[in-house]
Amino acid sequence: MTTVLEACRPSWAPSLEVVPRGPKMGAGLFFVYVLFKTVVCHFLMTLLWMIGVECAQHPHGAYGVVADWVPSLGFLRDYPQFDFLTPAPFGGAAWFAIDTLGGILTLLEVILYQVGPYVLPKDLAPGKFDSTLYPPLFNDLHARESLIAFWSKGWHAIFRRNIVFCGWNPMEYLFSSFGKDAAKTAGMMGGMIFSGIFHEYLIAAVSKIDWKFPTVLMFTLCGLGMVTEVQFKRQTGLLVKGIPGRWWLVLVIGAGGKYMVDSWMARGLGRSDMPPPRLWTWPRFLVPFSGLMPERWISRIESWVP
């Protein structure tokens, strides 16, 4: 009986504040809306990836690129240890690449809703289309004014269930004997460390392991920053927000992101089999995600067109 009741319970879902409903539209209008958004995301991803590749391949990094455009800032080349700009285009490119992929898959699903009833058996055909079931993958990411808001309600919104289940809950349980506050703090750190582990695994799977684990350290630093925000609120009664909150967010992510992206570039990010943007050919601008592909794949795509 218990098993039956458990199966009948509503499935887990985050609050609408974290993952809001999608816009209410008909299938046709929603298709056009997603198509336009996907094209814009592809353009922004390609633009930011171009900038990231320029920074990765320049001997002086982002400061070198800036100095080439503004010669009066040439002194920046002497301070690579303070180059916190290079992670920015790569982070933005990742954001829009994921949104582009989400848009493409959503378009395919909308098509399935329209064609499915005619080509699939009745038991397998999709039901009535509801555009509100397609929330944004990143909920107002650009508007976040603290680390907690950025990670828990922005970047990690769609992955929240996995992170809570695999990272937060185990650590919260292990530290529950130390009190509620300690358990919540451990849970927060556990969620961020777990996120760092699967990001680190993703990079290592396509390159090699960096035994300093800079990606885990970056997410751990962000977790410590989130704990600091909680303590700040407890001590002062104030939330981290506004312009100071944005600066705090940029500084913490930039500080950890620099060493993480440096490690990624040392393992080939933006460099391995990747020509400089001035030598790019049409597939890198028109075909989704082709900007990320090695040159030998681009040559193959070009060979398909007479």
UniProtKB/TrEMBL annotation:
A single GO cellular-component term from the record reads: membrane
Subcellular location per the Swiss-Prot or TrEMBL entry: Membrane
| Start and end residues of each Wax synthase domain | 134-219
What's the protein's topology in the membrane?
Answer: Multi-pass membrane protein
Pathway named in the protein's UniProt entry: Secondary metabolite biosynthesis
Listed GO biological process terms:
lipid metabolic process
Q: Which GO terms describe its molecular function?
A: O-acyltransferase activity
Q: Which UniProt keywords apply?
A: Membrane, Transferase, Transmembrane, Transmembrane helix
Family affiliation: Belongs to the wax synthase family.
Q: What is this protein called?
A: Wax synthase domain-containing protein
Organism of origin: Puccinia graminis f. sp. tritici (strain CRL 75-36-700-3 / race SCCL)
